Amino acid sequence: MKRSSKAALLSGLIFPGIGHMVLKQYLRGSVLMLSALAAFSLIVTRVFQRALTIVDRINSGDVPVETGAIAELVSNSTSGADSFMENAAVVVLGACWLIGIIDSYRLGVAQEK
Model pTM greater than 0.85? Predict the structure, then answer.
């Protein structure tokens, strides 16, 4: 398998920046990895906080233990600022993933020449 294909697959299937590490582009890979990790951690933290809030409301008796009531609470649990931050983090994560695939493939082709 060519280095360019291997790097692009690693960046696409494992995590952004892994392909750059294989190609010995450590600075680019580190920047992509840290950016993607920061966005991913923000998403996971917000989702976990929202889930804990819902569980607390269920445990306190504010919300009945019914599928419909819980589903409605989950769908209405985001506010404007939280939703914007989560959407921005998803866009950053997707951009890091796409940039990682394209750039690692491009660098791999350049190194093969």
Answer: no
d(CA 104, CA 23) in angstroms, rounded, equals 8
Give the tens place of pLDDT for each residue, 7-37: 999 999 999 999 999 999 999 999 999 999 9
What does the buried/exposed string (b/e) look like for 71-83 if buried means 16 or more CB atoms within 10 Å of the residue's CB? eebeeeeeeeeee
User: What 3-state class would DSSP assign to 66?
Assistant: coil
Rounded Cα–Cα distance for residues 6 and 23 (Å): 10
Closest CA to 39 of 79, 84, 85: 85
Residue type, 37: L
- In the block, which residue shows the tokens 């920046």? 17
Contact present, 7 and 105 (Cβ < 8 Å) = yes
Nearest-10 crossing angle of helices 26-60, 80-112: 150
Query: What is the CA angle 9-15-16, rounded to 5?
Result: 85
* CA–CA gap between residue 99 and residue 69 (Å, rounded): 40
